[in-house]
Amino acid sequence: MSGASHEGTSPSTVKERAEIALNNEFLRKAVKFTTERLRTGKKSASEEHGNWDLWRERGRQIRLHTIAHLDYYLSQFIENARANGVHVHFAATSEEAVELTMAIAKEAGARSVVKSKSMVSEELHINAALEKAGIESVETDLGEYIIQLAGEAPSHIIIPAIHKNRYQIAELLSKEAGKELPPDTSILAGFVRRKLREKFLEADIGMTGCNFAIAETGSIVLFENEGNARMVSTVPKTQITLMGMERIIPTWDDLEVMSTLLPRSATGQKLTVYMSGITGPRRPLDGDGPEEMHIIIVDNGRSLQLGDPEFQELLNCIRCGACLNACPVYRQIGGHAYGGTYSGPIGAVLTPSLNKNIMEWDDIANASSLCGACYEACPVKIPLHDMLVYLRNRKVKNGKRMMLESAGMKGFKLVMGNHKLYESAVKIGRAGQVLVKREGKIKAKIGPLKGWNSYRHLSALPKQSFREAWQELEKDLKQEMREMTAETKQRMEQALKTRKGGGNSHEQH
Amino acid sequence: MSSTEHEAFLRDLREKSLRQQEQFIGNIKQRLGRSGQGGEPPAHPFKGAPDFWQEFELKQDERVNLFMDNWKKAGGHAVQLRTMEEAKRFIVQLSKDLSAKQLLIQNQEELHAMELDRSLNGAEVSVWHQQQGLSVAAGADIGVVVVDYAAAYTGSIIVTSSPDKGRSVSLLPTVMIAIIPAERLYTRVGQVLAHFNGSIREQMPAGIHFISGPSRSADIENDLTIGVHGPGIVYALVVTNE
């Protein structure tokens, strides 16, 4: 994204980011409402379809099989894609993927790029690189376009602008339109349609992600509702597709299972409005579609999970977002609190795994109540709650506690251990901030705020504190907890037992 | 950029790609604890949908009803017609009702036979053409296609690209009309996918598009908006040919 980086560089912890999220009343309500809607949609869609657990099990088996033979299927995909006329490239790191994209864009003499939604491209921060080279890069998914204008990162994998209300959106789009637009959904969407239609027709390059790649024919498959991914892969002369190396499925038959699981789990739809299978660039006599097609296969930390008995199943993820909607913690704090490209339970496990730095990201694993709702929701049955336990376990084993953290923890313990001390600390803060507070923000780079405020402005202490808001959160959590099934309970007990037994030994799932 | 220079650029990328492929796949093999070439295809016992699902099959009238029901629930319009002549009359009437100025039809036999231009005064009817198809599509009010397949259970039509069938015709116009000959309507998505499974690669169309209603988004405050990028008004005309 073109705005402040949301990864790695942030000095804050999940707890601090969560406090900010909890202070933002609108965000909290919007996230709760949206996740509730999606969760209910998924529930009724899976119930209506029937035999949901049989489908989940089939989905899991296909993913397990493909990942276990990833060398074979990826090679088959590459060979077939090349035979279709696709230029296939490899990127071991995000930097290599950016380099390749820039080389192709410069060679094409590109002035503008239109993009459809791709989580991989969020990993790469490709927009910033393109803009630095003077190439306009436009996100064309409605939600992504809105947050691009705001200079922010997506807060939900399926509904990226979940945290913006229509008044904020109208303000952003009015700036773009050069005139006042009313906060009316259909007028705002109509403006975006016209504006982006021009962008599609002018663009030199279309960039897409890849939901699935079919080994047997070297095809990529895109799921979407707006039609922007179809635009991006139909109008520009050159197409660049960014693909995570684990997106493979063996055959078109297997797509029936994935197309049954993904839309129902993501939004409760029987199928997304568009599901497109793209097999190479346009044929010589075709009238539209890209003349040149590039697929960049990205590793960027994925291969680290291969052969790891505790985390290999992470590669089975089909990026539906169901675990976010199911997670009581996500529903309270929203996506930005996780601080990485991926949020929610999947992000809590995937971010440290992709970054290979468990220590830096360790606190993210604690942003979970281990209730197992994520596993219940997962359409390919990834045992995310077990993985969160493994992650905490590895952190403790590594044993390194930073000096500063320990010192901070002592002070924290002292204050937190005594509610009177805590309350007076907050009161002192509330009184003290009068000196530095401007428009609800604290911008001063003084004392303990120096590091934090060098990057962003700290929200002023709210009238209702995190601790006061906790009562509500706790109530919600308790409701969630009741939903734990016997199966989950058993899994959790098993995980505990294994842990007590000491060491890494753990049964394969 | 001359074409020979561009070819040299692509050749360099290809050589680099081939070098990296060895490393990339080698790393995966090593992580998976495999060595050697291992070119044998692995047995895939869980291919495709569960067995019970493969037996699920509806009768034609059930398929038609379920398809139309799903299409309408997604926000589209659906009608059942007996003949292509009825379909033609429907298209002519709709074009008049909407005061359409520009119609774009795929270069398909069934659509030529309708001779829409003869029945529509005041509206221009263009046929998809590989030369200037895209710009015509960008200005068209209505795009008309005859689908390759349809699937009742998800309420989807399936269109594929070819020199005679542009991807833009079902995408760029404000309104899309899809004609579905009932014999191309299957029960399940899997029955349509089976047409591409194990296909001879040379015969694969570049674009295979499942479309299940009007373009939509809920990105602004979860408020459903229709017609964000693709057509917001979509008609499915199921022709039973009785």
TrEMBL record, chain B:
Q: Which SUPFAM superfamilies match?
A: NagB/RpiA/CoA transferase-like (SSF100950)
Chain intervals for the UniProt region annotation (Disordered):
30-49
Report domain LUD positions: 65-239
Q: Please give the Pfam families that the UniProt record associates with this protein.
A: LUD_dom
User: Which PANTHER family does this chain map to?
Assistant: LACTATE UTILIZATION PROTEIN C
Q: Identify the species of origin.
A: Paenibacillus nanensis
InterPro entries in alphabetical order:
FTHF_cligase-like_sf, LUD_dom, NagB/RpiA_transferase-like
Protein's recorded name: Lactate utilization protein C
